[in-house]
């Protein structure tokens, strides 16, 4: 396979990404706490030779209005690091990526947990590094309001520095374990971190050997100016929400152009836009599926979700009127801009925008046959919009089954996607090099 | 089985509790990162009908002297909550208990992770609540020195209050998940925590439904005055180190007598002393095993370990001289007192004390045949010294195999221990009631 290959990631969200997914006849309404469900999904994605599975996260119950909150099916689910650890035992090849915030965690705990999952899984862990931008989360961690955007990103950068330094605490060959001599490890190959910075003081070393992958794969999803710059410096995969090829190309070109200033090649960072595929064996079947799903949306839920994305309460505005001017907030800037652009571009009412956003939270939704969907993926991939995709099935498990059974074979026929795993680690699936330790001796660097 | 039953817990520590375990021919030297090893141990303990398996924890590499540290085989292992999550998928009945510190964690994260493990395992999670008492740990979490004993315990008590309140965020019947009506949960059965205290402000609610057990089982191991009082108020299981039946009886009577002042019955808290059994089919075989293990100890390691337990560096004192006066420290008080008492009582030199402590870190070590060991366990159990035992095999996996194959059947023959699991949760194995939510409505309390 000399042809450039695309990368596929399965973003698994309870009963699916569509806001009303849990009400669909195919859905497991109790998906959030159903381990058999997630086991099946991870095994299906592995059968489809996906690079990884991915779990989002937040550390609060969102502040939706009282009449709306009880109708949201995406509340109350497994904590992602415990779920990832459990999935490591029922899968063999697929990467295991989870979100964890730099805002309300300590770097020692996170470095250690991801290292542990990397060891449990034989080198399949990935960390989606995010900042937390809601007051609901702040209030669970001794604050009244969340941190300013700039401070969150400063903290995130320092957090990243500490975590990667902790992962390098031990040289790869530090552990000798020679029963005869009694030498368990070589203490000269152990490196305390001695970090003292603005946000953290962490002496180290980490109390777990260097991860199988050197460093678990670092994923990011921020698209603001600060988010792009942090990603260009530190991320190896970006998940991004892009609605059109043109926007995707602009984002792709911008982020890739930033890599050189950090001494990184264009290949060192893979850009994976989200896609929510609604798949039918015929175009009509696909459109029917989509219509059936949209019909399940309660408009109150849709508007509440939209308000959450904008950081601005729309419940007092007429449902069938235009989107009003939305003031700047201190929340997630990039998601907000995406949604506003979508409304302006397509001239949508609040109701129409709410329905569009509800189907995959502002991500690219493609309704069509397997061939039509593969055409779109190939186009974005070949035309500088993507290195691969973060697949967000509207309903689980059937949406993932459809993608694996119908779209993956089409991509494979076109020579765009692997038919077998070539490596054993997530890093190898993604074509990313294993990072040398910052303490590596000259011969280790040369090796 | 109308007879009172004892409880058994398997304390799993890398290649075993003996400090030189990893050098033993039976040991897995790489045990700390060997999931197959832990899977086998958990399944063996489950075959032996143990109540639970247990993992200790600390959040640092200990500050041993440079010439000693590389010879310690208990450094560099899986993080316990990730390991517990993985083990939940390869076991069906046995309880899964891990240690997590109240000193350097946030209650929201811990409440959530233990709730998640409780859901993953169908109600088998237990939390060993500890305080962190080393400067090595403090330095990984933005401090130069660890917190004072009194402050640690104040923080621990508040931490417990917040965690248990978070576990009660959702009523047991809050999630309706009615696809037809679109009602996912009943928002009137959701209770924010609104905690504002000395150490934490946590609004809640927790973003995961109430645990299967109501609350995961709360375990503690502190034996100081503050530790006993906190346990009497909050713990459901105590692990304790006791060297003699007399000491065990005194501890047992003292802790049980404290329960009434918190409105708790004597049965609400199970006391499990640690025992490190060295099992031979004959007395001579057992003694040979013990001698063989002790011969593997490097005296430098032994003295370093002893120094760590005492919080006082003994390396400058003559190996074959007496234990000097050891000054008070701000560390773990109870473990220190146990070791000093042992030296004074038996008139041990530093070398002798180091060897004794090295075999099971100051825990009760019993060398003998299965019958002799069962006799000891029965004696402590019947004579008011224990409700059961925390079994600490000197070498793993063989030490656990021996206990399950040789000692458990003897206890079963005497009618002291279950031959099959009767319940499905750790709480049921331990004979502990499922706690009602603090928000339970009258009819729920009566049920």
Automatic annotation (TrEMBL), chains A, B:
Pfam families: Bac_luciferase
Keywords: Flavoprotein, FMN, Monooxygenase, Oxidoreductase
GO molecular function, one term: monooxygenase activity
Domain Luciferase-like: 19-387
SUPFAM superfamilies: Bacterial luciferase-like (SSF51679)
Family stated for the protein in its record: Belongs to the NtaA/SnaA/DszA monooxygenase family.
This protein's name: Monooxygenase
């Amino acid at each position: 396979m000399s042809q450039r290959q695309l990368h596929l990631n399965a973003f698994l969200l309870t009963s699916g990404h569509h806001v009303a997914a849990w009400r669909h006849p195919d859905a497991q309404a109790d998906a959030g706490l159903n381990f058999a469900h997630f086991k099946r999904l991870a095994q299906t994605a592995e059968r489809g030779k996906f690079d990884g599975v991915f779990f989002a996260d937040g550390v609060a119950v969102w502040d939706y209005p009282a009449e709306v909150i009880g109708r949201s099916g995406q509340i109350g689910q497994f904590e992602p690091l415990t779920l990832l650890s459990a999935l490591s035992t029922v899968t063999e090849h697929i990467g295991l990526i989870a979100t964890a915030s730099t805002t309300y965690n300590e770097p020692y705990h996170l470095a250690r947990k991801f290292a542990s999952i990397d060891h449990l899984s034989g080198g399949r862990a990935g960390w989606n590094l995010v900042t937390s931008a809601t007051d609901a989360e702040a209030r669970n961690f001794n604050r009244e309001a969340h941190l300013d955007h700039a401070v969150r990103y400063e903290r995130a950068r320092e957090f990243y520095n500490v975590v990667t330094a902790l992962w390098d605490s031990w040289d790869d060959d530090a552990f000798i374990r020679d029963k005869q001599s009694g030498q368990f490890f070589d203490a000269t190959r152990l490196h305390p971190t001695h970090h003292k910075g603005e946000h953290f003081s962490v002496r180290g070393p980490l109390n777990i050997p260097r991860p199988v992958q050197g460093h678990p794969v670092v994923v990011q999803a921020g698209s603001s100016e600060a988010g792009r710059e942090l990603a260009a410096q530190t991320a190896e995969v970006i998940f991004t929400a892009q609605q059109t090829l043109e926007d995707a190309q602009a984002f792709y070109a911008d982020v890739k152009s930033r890599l050189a200033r950090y001494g990184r090649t264009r290949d060192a960072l893979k850009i994976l836009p989200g896609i929510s595929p609604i798949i039918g064996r015929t175009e009509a079947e696909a459109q029917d599926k989509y219509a059936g799903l949209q019909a399940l949306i309660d408009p109150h839920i849709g508007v509440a979700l939209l308000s959450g994305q904008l950081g601005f309460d729309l419940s007092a505005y007429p449902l069938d009127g235009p989107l009003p001017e939305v003031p700047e907030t201190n929340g997630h800037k990039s998601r907000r801009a995406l949604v506003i652009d979508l409304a302006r571009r397509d001239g949508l009412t609040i109701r129409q925008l709410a329905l569009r956003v509800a189907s995959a939270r502002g991500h690219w939704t493609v309704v069509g046959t397997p061939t039509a969907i593969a055409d779109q993926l190939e186009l974005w991939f070949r035309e500088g919009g993507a290195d691969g995709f973060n697949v967000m099935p509207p309903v689980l498990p059937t949406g993932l089954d459809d993608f694996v059974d119908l779209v993956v074979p089409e991509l494979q026929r076109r020579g765009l996607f692997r038919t077998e795993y070539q490596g054993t680690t997530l890093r190898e699936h993604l074509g990313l090099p294993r990072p040398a330790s910052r303490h590596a001796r000259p011969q280790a660097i040369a090796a």
